[in-house]
Design brief:
Number of domains: 2
Helix content: over 70%
Number of helices: 6
Structural class: mainly alpha
Radius of gyration: 24 Å
Protein name: Putative tricarboxylic transport membrane protein
Pfam families: TctB
Keywords: Membrane, Transmembrane, Transmembrane helix
Number of strands: 0
Strand content: under 5%
Largest sheet: none
Distance between the termini: 36 Å
Amino acid sequence: MKAIKLSVPIFFILFSSVFLIASFNLPKASLGNPDAPIYFPAGLSIIMLIFSIIYLFQELKKLDKENKYIKQMLSGRTPKLIGFTILLGVIYAFVFDRIGFLYSTILYLGGLLFYINGIKKWLVNIIVTIAFSFLSWYAFSVLLGVSLP
């Protein structure tokens, strides 16, 4: 939860910085003050940047108070689950075009479910993996007419 609270001001700091840079690249006005089209977007992005920085510092102050919750979240099985999910996602991206949507989705979802649920629930893992893969393939390929690899 805290990561989400910190990611919002960081996102808006980046967004307002890009918006500020883009506002200086606007074309000059041909009549009147040539810099007039730059004032409003630049001012708006500067205000948004200032408020985002203030919000980030407020959230960082709260981080010290909630540090014990972050330590609890990062202990146990959670980091391994995140790492394994990222690893499977990267493998899924590499094999998607080579073996196709259906087979790569079965491998990805099956591997993830077996890691989360364990081998004891093998029947549920296999049923969910195959049912979801075939239903999503059917929905996209047949019903929506989207060609999948």
